[in-house]
Design a protein that fits this description.
heterodimer; A: 188 residues; alpha/beta; Rossmann fold; 6 helices; 9 strands; 30% helix; globular; B: 279 residues; seven-stranded mixed beta sheet; three-stranded antiparallel beta sheet; 10 strands
Chain lengths: 188, 279
C-alpha cells in the first residue's frame, strides 16, 4: 500500500485503547524496526502507567516520550498526560502545553498533523477505538501528505465513534480488523 | 523543466522567512523554537486572521504594527493551571521553603509567566508559609499581552474548580477562595497578591541574566525551544541563581542533556527541582 519503505507509524486511540493496544504491540517481534508513536486519551492529572503496562507484555521497547528525544526504530513512544506530542522535521519528539484540541491534551490530531509534515508518504497512521472525533482531521492530513491511513473496523472496535469519524473524513482509508492491522504491520 | 517543489516545502520556506522578518523588524526571535508547534500555530493564525498564505501574513505583520500583537497571541499561547502538578508545589513547600526561610530577603523569578497561573500559585504558597513579605517576585514573559493578563489576575470561573483542587492537593494551608472575588463568571485575584511582584518584559532567547535569584521557576517553557536554545536559557538560569539557589522545571523537562548539567544537582529528582552547585 505504501510506495517505498514506511518510516514510521502513528497510532491514536481513546476509549478501549489499552485492550486494543494490548493486542497490537505485544504481537510485534523484537526485530520490528519502525518507530511507533502513540497518543491515547488519558486523564491530565494522573501519572500514566500505559507505557509500563505495555512494556511488560511487549518485545519492542515501550516508553513515555521525553521532550526532544530522537526517534528510534523498534520503539513505541507514548504521549505523557497533559502534553501534546509532536514530531519535528529532524525526526525527534517534542512536547507542548498548547491549548487542548477537541478537549484533549494529548491530541491525536496534533500528533498526526506534525508526523504527516515530518514523514510525508513514509507515514502509516492508524485510528483505533474511541468515543470522540479526535484523529479524523489528523488522518486527513496524513492522506494529503501521501501517507497510509488505516482505521479499525468500527463495528469491531470497543467504541466506534472515533473510527467512524475518521472514515467519514478519509473515505479512502483502509478499514481493517485488529488482526488485519497486525498482519499488515508484519509486512511493512 | 525544473521540478516544482511540493506545497509543503513552500510553506516551510514561508515560515522561515516570516520568523526572520519578526526578528529583524521587531526583535522577537522564534527562529530556534521547536518548529512543529510553531508551524501548527502559524497555520492557525493564517487561517483565523484570514490570510491565503503565510507570505501574506508576513507582509501584513511587517507593514501593520497592529498585526504584531495578534500574531504574538498565537505564537506565545500556553495554557497552564494554578498549582499545575500539585506534587511540584508540595515539594517546593516541604523541601525548598525550609532552605529559603534561612534568608532575610528572597528573590524569585517566574520565567515565562504566561497568564500568571504559576506566579499566583507561588505567591499564595509563600504567603501561607509566611515568606511573602520578604520576597520579591519577578514575573517575566516576552508577550506584553501575557504580562497584562498576568497582572490583571482574572480567570474564568470554570477553571477555578481545577485550581482549587490542585491547591488542596499541593498541601495548601488556606482556601483558594480567600484570594479572589467571583463575579460575572470571573474570579479576580486579590491585588495584594501583586504587592511584591515586578512584571517585566524579558526574553530567554535574546536578553541577559536577571539578578541574583534564590529560586527560578520556569515550567513548560523550555519545551518550546530547540536543544541549543534550551541550553542558552539554562545558562541564563545558572548565572541568575545565587549559590545553592533552586531551579524548578516542568514535569517533562530536565537538565539531563544540558551542557550546564554539571552546575546543578538533583534536589527533588522526580519533581525536576535542581539546586545550583556551590563553588
Amino acid at each position: 500500500m505504501t510506495e517505498g519503505r514506511a518510516q514510521a507509524i502513528v497510532i491514536g486511540a481513546s476509549a478501549g485503547a489499552l485492550e486494543a493496544l494490548s493486542v497490537v504491540l505485544p504481537a510485534l517481534p523484537a526485530t520490528f524496526d519502525l518507530p511507533i508513536i502513540v497518543v491515547v486519551h488519558i486523564p491530565p492529572d494522573k501519572r500514566s502507567f500505559l507505557a509500563e503496562l505495555l512494556q511488560a507484555k511487549s518485545k519492542i521497547r515501550v516508553l513515555e516520550a521525553d521532550d526532544k528525544e530522537p526517534i528510534c526504530g523498534g520503539t513505541a513512544y507514548f504521549a505523557p498526560p497533559n502534553y501534546h506530542l509532536l514530531v519535528e522535521a529532524n525526526k525527534s519528539l517534542s512536547l507542548s502545553s498548547e491549548e487542548a484540541v477537541l478537549f484533549s491534551r494529548p491530541s491525536i490530531d496534533v500528533l498526526f498533523e506534525s508526523a504527516a509534515d515530518a514523514y510525508g508518504a513514509g507515514l502509516i497512521a492508524i485510528v483505533l477505538t474511541g468515543a470522540n472525533q479526535d484523529g479524523a482531521s489528523g488522518l486527513r492530513a496524513v492522506v494529503n501528505a501521501g501517507g497510509t491511513a488505516i482505521v479499525q473496523t468500527p463495528k469491531a472496535a470497543f467504541a466506534s465513534a472515533m473510527p467512524e469519524a475518521a472514515i467519514t473524513m478519509c473515505p479512502t482509508a483502509h478499514i481493517m480488523s485488529l488482526d488485519a492491522i497486525l498482519s499488515f504491520l508484519h509486512e511493512v | 523543466m525544473k521540478e516544482i517543489p511540493a506545497p509543503e516545502k513552500i510553506e516551510d520556506i514561508e515560515i522561515r522567512l516570516l520568523l526572520e522578518a519578526l526578528y529583524v523588524r521587531y526583535h522577537y526571535d522564534f527562529r530556534n523554537y521547536a518548529m512543529a508547534s510553531i508551524k501548527r500555530r502559524l497555520r492557525q493564525a493564517r487561517e483565523q486572521l484570514g490570510f491565503a498564505t503565510i507570505s501574506a501574513l508576513q507582509e501584513s505583520v511587517l507593514h501593520d504594527t497592529q498585526m504584531l500583537p495578534r500574531l504574538l497571541g498565537y505564537l506565545t499561547i500556553q495554557v497552564s493551571e494554578m498549582f499545575r502538578d500539585p506534587s511540584y508545589f508540595q515539594a517546593i513547600r516541604e523541601q525548598v521553603v525550609p532552605h529559603l526561610r534561612t534568608y532575610p530577603s528572597l528573590k524569585i523569578w517566574i520565567a515565562g509567566c504566561s497568564g500568571g497561573e504559576e506566579l499566583y500559585s507561588l505567591v499564595i504558597l509563600f504567603r501561607e508559609e509566611g515568606l511573602e513579605s520578604r520576597t520579591i517576585f519577578y514575573a517575566t514573559d516576552i508577550s506584553q499581552e501575557a504580562l497584562r493578563t498576568a497582572e490583571a489576575g482574572v480567570y474564568t470561573l470554570d477553571r477555578i474548580q481545577l485550581f482549587t483542587e490542585n491547591h488542596r492537593k499541593s498541601g495548601g494551608k488556606s482556601s483558594l477562595s480567600d484570594y479572589y472575588n467571583a463575579a460575572y463568571g470571573r474570579a479576580s485575584f486579590d491585588k495584594t497578591l501583586r504587592q511584591n511582584v515586578v512584571f517585566s518584559d524579558h526574553s530567554l532567547v535574546t536578553d541577559a541574566v536577571f539578578g541574583e535569584m534564590h529560586l527560578v521557576s520556569c515550567r513548560n517553557v523550555l519545551i518550546y525551544f530547540d536543544r541549543p536554545l534550551q541550553d542558552r536559557a539554562i545558562g541564563l538560569f545558572k548565572h541568575s541563581l545565587a549559590r545553592k539557589g533552586f531551579l524548578g522545571l516542568g514535569a517533562k523537562e530536565s537538565l539531563r542533556f544540558s551542557a550546564h548539567s554539571g552546575s546543578f544537582k538533583d534536589f527533588v529528582r522526580e519533581e525536576k527541582i535542581y539546586q545550583r552547585a556551590g563553588e
